[in-house]
Specification:
The complex is a heterodimer of chains A (about 120) and B (about 110). With about 120 residues, chain A is mainly β. Chain A is built from no helices and eleven strands. In chain A, strands 2, 4, 5, 6, 9, 10 and 11 form a seven-stranded mixed beta sheet that branches. A four-stranded antiparallel beta sheet of chain A has the order 1-3-8-7, with no helix packed on it. Chain B contains no helices and twelve strands. In chain B, the strands form three sheets. In chain B, strands 2, 5, 6, 10, 11 and 12 form a six-stranded mixed beta sheet that branches. Chain B is globular and about 40 Å long. Classes of the chains: A mainly beta (about 120), B mainly beta (about 110). At the A-B interface, strand 4, strand 5, strand 9 and strand 10 of A face strand 5, strand 6, strand 10 and strand 11 of B.
Chain lengths: ~120, ~110
């Protein structure tokens, strides 16, 4: 009965490669998010989709492209991986973010290491 | 720009000691406030949240937080910590209508048995 799930849990890859991280939520939420947690544990939002529409797009390199095939899924594709992309990536979901009950629920994280 | 500041980066306490973690934010409008906890190797879990009403909010595991609007603060408290409270604690603010959360830099709490 996992609420927000991510695959893979760990990802080790070489610089220059292209990789994807998948996220799925079974909470019936309309909104999904991607956050990046750096080595100092600082969390920063990257993207958010509401009903498959992009609503938040922070200053993230173009190499990062989110894709939402439906409102239960939000995948993150990263092209030409760089050393600085090494981090833990968290997916989250919530009901309508404008709603009072728009609490975000986080997935277990994907630990990406670029060598 | 909106920001969240957590003053204590690393706190070490003995079991049964009282805890207070500071959190200040810079946004002047209507805000929703959250405390999340991240246990070692795990994902973020919601401890408590403030949307409106009583500024003293009670959360899970005996935690509480007080919203003081005049001080732009939302400090987290627990009267008696346990070893199992060892974790990272993140304060976050949500503003606007996009759901965007702005996180503080986190506080590492280490509780010695």
């Amino acid at each position: 009965d996992t609420a927000v799930s991510q695959t893979p849990k760990y990802l080790v890859t070489q610089m220059g490669n292209d990789k994807s991280i998948k996220c799925e939520q079974n909470l019936g939420h309309d909104t999904m998010y991607w956050y990046k947690q750096d080595s100092k544990k600082f969390l920063k939002i990257m993207f958010s989709y509401n009903n498959k529409e992009l609503i938040i797009n922070e200053t993230v390199p173009n190499r990062f492209s989110p894709k939402s095939p439906d409102k239960a899924h939000l995948n993150l594709h990263i092209n030409s991986l760089e050393l600085g992309d090494s981090a833990v990536y968290f997916c989250a979901s919530s009901q309508d973010p404008r709603a009072v009950m728009g609490t975000q629920y986080f997935g277990p994280g994907t630990r990406l290491l670029v060598l | 720009a909106q920001s969240v500041s957590q003053h204590n980066h690393h706190v070490i306490l003995s079991e049964a000691a009282s805890l207070e973690l500071g959190c200040n934010y810079s946004y002047g409008g209507t805000v929703n406030l959250f405390w999340y906890v991240q246990y070692p190797g795990q994902h973020l879990q919601l401890l408590l949240k403030y949307f409106s009403g009583d500024p003293l909010v009670k959360g899970i595991k005996g935690f509480e937080a007080e919203f003081i609007k005049s001080k732009f603060s939302f400090n987290l408290r627990k009267p008696s910590v346990q070893w199992s409270d060892t974790a990272e604690y993140f304060c976050a603010v949500r503003s606007g209508n996009t759901g965007k959360l702005i996180f503080g830099q986190g506080t590492t709490l280490q509780v010695k048995p």
